[in-house]
Amino acid sequence: MPIYEYECAACGHRLEAIQKFSDEPLRDCPECGKPELSKLISAAGFRLGGGGWYETDFKSKNQRNLKDGGGESKASAPACGSGGCGTTACGTTSS
């Protein structure tokens, strides 16, 4: 479940709340009791970038396949439709 940040317009109190996507936003401030809470927009606590979670978190240093040269690099997979995969899923086959 995501963590949402709120701020009270009346007293300035800030808080975090773990809520489901389907939950209604909080309205009443736990400090002053007024219905002045509003959701804040904040940065995510993590970033998915580069080659993926496995590439950046679970491989050893010499096995990384990162853009910045963090180890050995692999050739990219052929584009769909080029017939390089050998399947007929896209209507082409390799010869």
TrEMBL record:
Domain of life: Bacteria
Organism in which the protein naturally occurs: Thioalkalivibrio sulfidiphilus (strain HL-EbGR7)
Name the record gives this protein: Regulatory protein, FmdB family
NCBIfam families noted in UniProt: CxxC_CxxC_SSSS
Chain ranges passing through the membrane: none
Chain residue ranges for the region called Disordered: 64-95
Ranges for domain Putative regulatory protein FmdB zinc ribbon: 1-42
Cross-referenced InterPro entries: Regulatory_FmdB_Zinc_ribbon
